[in-house]
Design a protein that fits this description.
3 helices; alpha/beta; 4 strands; two-stranded parallel ribbon
Length: 89
Amino acid sequence: MIKTGPFFEEVPGGGDLYVLKHVVHDWHDEEAQAVLRRVRAAMSPESRLLLVKTVLPPLNKGHFGKLLDLDVLIFMGGKERTIESSQSR
């Protein structure tokens, strides 16, 4: 069964798989971490998280994600993340 809802308020517990598609890029690091912590708290030890997001290439490479980055930055205050920034956490 698929359940959706406001992840800042509640994440349903007991799921086998939790999917966050293009979610964490909408938020600053602190809020993105809060979302991930809330999902983790709802998960059982057997649950899995599938995090689908765009990872930007190095600075001088063209990529559609860079346009998304501007959109998210301007309208939501979030950001796309590079492979390096994702691995530093």
